[in-house]
Design a protein that fits this description.
A hairpin with a 2-residue loop joins strand 5 and strand 6. Helix content is 25%, strand content 18%. It contains 5 helices and 6 strands; from the N terminus they run H-E-E-H-H-E-H-E-H-E-E. The protein is globular. The protein is of the alpha/beta class. It has one domain: TIM Barrel (Alpha-Beta Barrel). Helix 4 packs parallel to helix 5. The longest helix is centred in the middle third of the chain and has 13 residues. It has a 6-stranded mixed β-sheet, with helices on one face.
Length: 178
């Protein structure tokens, strides 16, 4: 993926109404310094994903444009994220990307942009947002997408990855031949 093609397919009206995370609840580390998921120790960009069982997992929040920082709740260096994604996809190691889908942050356009940003990934899972124990109290009132809406979002993302599914919904899996 080239830096000039960020996967953005346009803006959405939902973007303007997205809640913001108060600065007190965001990280104070420099945005260009990736850190290990289990600590605040700086690490190599290729190691910014978490290690799970036998695969590397990356929580991808949004398309690689201004929406990524807004959804992450902190400024991020998109070039570092692009480089890390390319390294992970090109490494040959088992991996998955996942997005916790929250209606104020994720529209069809956002999921499509996120899928374009990880084009060629082996696995992409959409996880439905659960409005409990949220950092932003206003998100406790958000109504999650229905199962049908989640499956529709997975179908939008599926053409860009080898396997796409809604986590916890075995009937939602869509696999392309490599």
């Amino acid at each position: 993926m080239s830096p000039e093609k960020d996967g953005s397919t346009g803006s959405s009206s939902a973007a303007a109404s997205r809640p913001s995370i108060p600065p007190s609840q965001t990280s104070s580390r420099p945005s260009s310094t990736p850190v290990s998921p289990s600590s605040s120790t700086p690490t190599d960009p290729a190691r910014t994903c978490s290690r799970t069982s036998s695969a590397n997992a990356w929580s991808s929040t949004s398309p690689l444009d201004e929406r990524y920082s807004r959804t992450a709740g902190a400024e991020v260096n998109l070039n570092d994220i692009r480089a890390s994604i390319e390294i992970l996809i090109g490494s040959g190691v088992s991996h998955e990307f996942r997005t916790t889908v929250c209606p104020p942050f994720h529209t069809d356009d956002d999921i499509l942009g996120a899928a374009l940003a990880i084009r060629g990934a082996s696995h992409y899972y959409l996880q439905n947002f659960r409005p409990i124990n949220t950092l932003d109290p206003s998100l406790a009132e958000v109504k999650p997408y229905t199962g049908e809406e989640m499956r529709r979002l997975a179908a939008l993302a599926a053409p860009f990855v080898r396997h796409c599914a809604v986590r916890g919904d075995p009937g939602s899996a869509i696999t392309r031949k490599a």
